[in-house]
Amino acid sequence: MCTIAIYSLKGGVGKTSLAVNLAWCAATLSSRRTLLWDLDAQAASTFLIKLGKRPKRLADAVYEEEVKAGKLIRSTGIDRLDLLVADRSLRGLDGLFRSIGKKKRLAKIISTVSSEYDRIIIDCPPGLTETSDQIIRAADIVIVPVIPSPLSRRAFNEVARHIEQHHKGRTAILPVHMMVDRRRNLHGAALDENPDWPAIPYASVVEQMADRREPLGEFAPRSPAAQAFERLWRGIEKRIAKL
Ligand SMILES: Nc1ncnc2c1ncn2[C@@H]1O[C@H](COP(=O)(O)OP(=O)(O)O)[C@@H](O)[C@H]1O
Ligand SMILES: [Mg+2]
Known about the structure:
- There is one protein chain.
- This protein is an alpha/beta fold.
- The chain has one domain: Rossmann fold (3-Layer(aba) Sandwich).
- The chain has helices at residues 15-28, 44-48, 60-63, 93-100, 105-111, 130-138, 150-166, 185-193, 204-212, 216-219, 224-241, and strands at residues 2-6, 34-38, 73-75, 81-84, 119-123, 141-146, 172-180, 199-201.
- Helix 5 crosses helix 6.
- Residues 15-16, 40, 42, 44, 123 line the site of magnesium ion.
């Protein structure tokens, strides 16, 4: 089992789009038993995957350890892909983690379901907080979407430094250029600076996921964006094999 966190200091950089599409790739292209774990109070992954019945309990009860993680898990209609739902109760998650003072609470909760999955992909909230520290401790690899710009690059450097200093560099980190538009000078320059980073193009099909409420692979598998997610996923699998 491998836990993959999709994380950034910043909001609106493509975390959820990456999480949903990579989870689809894991389940469908690599035939992995996959759990997409929505940990963001905005519950965007939960929205993007159409679900049947929603859980009765609010999500924060799982992190309080009042109910088992399995109670939040739903099958998605896509083979081998399950979703652990989020909702607005997670707005208080950071305070909760801080007040309980257990640094590995999230890792422990993940371990209660880990035997049922090969890949757990976490859609993270933004910010460098106690929640992100919990996530970094629990993850084997952290994927960081970076929009090609100096400011996003700075945010990435901060995360990399934080992991190096506070997590002794124990967690692997993989930056991904997101929403790339090669016609833009700034994007071109950022890509030239880090030509080895995987890149996902800016594409309206990615935005359409919110309308369709399904991963790209379900409605536009041959689009250049879907193929870029696929290449990225295959690269992540190779990287996992070396961990
Ligand atoms: N590669 C892309 N091309 C075009 N739009 C994108 C792409 N990736 C994300 N978006 C759009 O950008 C917005 C923010 O993306 P999202 O994945 O929700 O980011 P985050 O989870 O980091 O807040 C959404 O409207 C999404 O549809
Ligand atoms: Mg999001």
